[in-house]
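Record 1 of the preview.
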Amino acid sequence: MHASCEPPPIARFGPLLATDLRDVTDDVAALDSSGFWAVAADFDGRTVCARFGDVRRAPRPAPPPAATPADVAARTGWRGPDPRSWTSSMDRAGYEQGVREIRARIATGEVYQVNLCRVLTAPLPAPYGDIDALGAVLAHGNPAPYAGVIRLPAHGVEIATASPELFLRRRGDTVESGPIKGTARTAADFLAKDHAENVMIVDLVRNDLGRICAPGTVTVPALCAVEPHPGLVHLVSTVRGRLRPGAGWPELFGAAFPPGSVSGAPKSSALRIIAELETAPRGPYCGGIGWVDADRRTAELAVGIRTFWIDRDVPGGPVLRFGAGAGITWGSDPGGEWAETALKAERLLAVASEVYPAAREAPAQPSGGIHGTSGTRGV
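->
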């Protein structure tokens, strides 16, 4: 798309539509000022906060009950990538070696858990529509509690998320997080490792919130609840606390970002290992995506998982990116962790490519793709 014909900036979160862009800043202290803000915080540190002047309820029109993602795509103008064109920043051999390396670090006591991720990339056809059209396809093909779209192409932000995970919810002085650890096709498939990993990350999130909450106010109202989502189930916990006087968004981000569920424990050691082992920047994947209403002192930020973003700054034209990862513990099996990343990716990539539910019978992925076994391509 040429800049002169770009669609206007917007943000969507559930039924809310924000338009009339007023300000853009990388300073999270602005979230304590006034107005309604859309927030896109990359895992790697870049943050874009955009204040909109008009926010209203504008739910997406519901498609016919029998509509497929391809039907919704045709109605909205989205043209997704060829489902065979997805490539991975790490192939299966490289990912499994990363799992073994993390287990070796765990054996020495350097770390207890690390989230190891790979970034999947596919070239976009011309014309491909826009990120809000992809958001409509995702809303139909993979509905999610923290679905959202942020479209700020002039600022390098074009994100559509189908995130199931709460990073931070704020209601006045009360702050809450909903870490997810444990993913399986059915509840019967959960392993003891999944429960142990969830408890470990809950403890990390408790410590994070404890740094900026009043003493004695951090609680865990729910631990390892089974939560169904399209194509899989998760173990989800809830951690809640009351902010100490004077704690605002800079303090919240300083204590809690990046999210513990997609970094590891201890967080500082996990982040160092992630930087050593991962071969592509995560971008908005595993960051924070959502909204802040500074006037009402309310907010809802999702962990940027199940998230697509358009990257135009690449040779050969725009690409669509998507991240997938798994939490690695001492009990991890390298092949099983690779399979978990594929499980998390397969439905979403098929929806974005407009072929679900036929994706399970689609042609095999190229090597290095969702299920590839050798040869890293792309990125």
